[in-house]
Amino acid sequence: MPRLPAPPLPKVLQPKPPRPGDEENGNVLSPVEAGITVVDWLDERTSLSPGLRWLLWRKVPRGINWAYTLGSATLFAFLSQAVTGVFLAMYYRPDPAGGAYESMRYINDDVFLGKFVHGMHKWGASVMVILIFLHMGRVFLYGAYKYPRELTWIIGVTLLILTLMMGFTGYLLPFDQKAYWASVVGVNINSGGPFIGPFLSDFLRAGPEFGATTLSRFYAIHMLLIPGAIIALIGLHLYLVTKLGITAPPWIKVDNGSEPDLVQRTEA
Amino acid sequence: MNQAEKETYLREYSILKNEGKPFFPYAVAKDSIMAAIVIFVIMFLSLMFGAELGPKADPTTTTYVPRPDWYFFFLFEVLRVMKNVPVFTPMATIGVPTICMILLFLLPFYDRSPERRIERRPVALSAAIFTIAAMAYLTYSGANTGSPNSVDMKPPANLTAAQKQTFTAGALVVGQSGCLACHVIGSNGNNGPGPPLTKIGSKLPPAAIASTLVNPTAPMPSFKSLAQQTPQKFQNLVGFLSLLQ
Lengths: 268, 245
Known about the structure:
The complex is a heterodimer. By secondary structure, chain A is an all-alpha fold. Chain A has helices at residues 31-46, 49-56, 70-89, 99-109, 114-141, 150-172, 177-191, 197-205, 214-244, 262-267; one strand spanning 59-60. Chain A has a domain at 66-245: Up-down Bundle (Cytochrome Bc1 Complex, Chain C), CATH 1.20.810.10. Chain A is extended and about 95 Å long. By secondary structure, chain B is mostly helical. In chain B, α3 packs antiparallel against α4 (89-105), α3 crosses α6 and α7 packs across α11 (231-242). Chain B is elongated, with a radius of gyration of 28 Å.
């Protein structure tokens, strides 16, 4: 139905036009409008919004269950390790002549919440290892590593090995008896490996023997080298997960009546 | 998978995906709940078990028992079991894990069947069960392995109560003194450079054992100071060794 024009208001009810010289309230933006303006400004320069839409408003197949949260839970455990690790690094000194042990003692005994953060980092490592194995178990049992997700699987196995290497290099850092001797034995085991074993051990120890620079080498590997590799590979892993889509549970049946959405297909 | 199977999979997957819900907010909500559980578990573990420091690292000790973090116990156990067969030691510790790692990496390339339901993949299912069982068993036995510095041997049944007490106390002294670094006693210790002591009591009388402990052949250290400072411990040590028959 066509709308009739509203009847004209009596003159007293009509809003008065702003007088010249009055404060111009009309130009002040509401908070929502201000937000939109900022986002528009950013988007005009970065064109990020299609990417975000691609990441967040993609569809996940029906039948997804709680086992599918294990991957993001592993990612979250990694983020927790990163944050607690940064705080520990603010107090830690990689000095094998006693400074490392003393700085850990200082964190445990004197720093505000130091022992709590140290404990979170220590136990977070175990939680991350458990989660990454559970995530791998889910992927294995659901056959999710099969075509077209082979590369996602390979990157995932690399992430698993890097995570275990984080556990190994981090174990030395408190520099107590347990840490020291476990690392000595671990590196010795490594040197028995095929082809690259002896070279890898020399690289880890910074020489043929456990020496003064071994600890700072473990520290650099633990907080710079492996985390950098892990972050890069997580990025690649997530890109592939988003690009290829999350697998449907293998027992979910397709309705024969429905047709594939061809537009979606060509877009992905 | 051949080309037809690949296309069938992609077609069916795109139907299922199209019937699904958007990632945000549905999957994100579940992931956030899981993330909250994870951080609570980590904080709980930290509050419950903390992060105690052990004694300061001392590169000069020889009797300290190295122990890795629990998720390396399986490797540790393989090493311990294979230790007595030197030919297999590098094979067991690095060879087997390396092969397992390569098998894990290449999984999508040798498992090429299009079947995804685990109950229709008997080989994959049995491999998974075997792997989980083996890892669980190795982790469990790695965690429960006694220290290499202690004697697991039980006192023989025909001993009197007093002799049993000496046996237990002496076994403790043996562990503390680091004898097992060079001697085998039962299933514990290293075979050499010292002679095995499993049946030493049937070869030497107690007096000869005591004099050997005080005046040993190099490189064995003398236990003279133990005999002078804590004669009771020394007596237990001699008593234990002479009961090994």
